[in-house]
């Protein structure tokens, strides 16, 4: 649906896929895309959670919604996912690589190879493979928009999430490289979120987090709905001259 104030933000007739789309920022983007007129594909490892969001989309917006259980770190699974989407809808216009993983570990020397590989698999290997497959099909068709969900950890890495930060830094590099590979008809950009109060934040030490947030220019964490503006901008024709960009949505954290 086109906005009278901001023409170009509508997604009528488009199909959008969001990995990690069953909760948190992913769910917010799924609902926003559907509200903007897109049919949506919700992807995560848990089919029941995806089905819940798909049902919510159908009830609230009347748009088509497909739930698909896929582990994004599994290379071959991406081929099946993309084939399923094109069989169902015949096209894919927006891809959001949102699925992420940042497990806790006691110390850097105790990071296991299994943990390291798992973090790289979800945050970097999966987005690489899915972007390669989807970008090639988009470029051969009518084009499209690919959005990678990075993290400010990519630019402000800390010892408590170092494998995750390394993977997200790699994702920023993929964003710029794929923008060159699949232009001019495919735009590839990244959103670099800061601290958002999603379900993951329930596991945070909020006292320590609050001490950090007071040093941010906006002095607070983000609400999940506050990812929507950036996502709609990059998904839609409103960003028709934007590619290879990494947009920080972090309350000003990276401006420090």
TrEMBL record:
Enzyme Commission identifier(s): 1.1.1.127
The family this protein is said to belong to: Belongs to the short-chain dehydrogenases/reductases (SDR) family.
PROSITE patterns the UniProt entry points to: ADH_SHORT
Gene name tied to this protein: kduD_3
Enzyme class, UniProt record, top EC level: oxidoreductase
Entry keyword annotation includes Cell membrane: no
InterPro entries: KR_dom (IPR057326), NAD(P)-bd_dom_sf (IPR036291), Sc_DH/Rdtase_CS (IPR020904), SDR_fam (IPR002347)
Protein name: 2-dehydro-3-deoxy-D-gluconate 5-dehydrogenase
Keywords: Oxidoreductase
SMART domains: PKS_KR
CDD domains, alphabetized: SDR_c
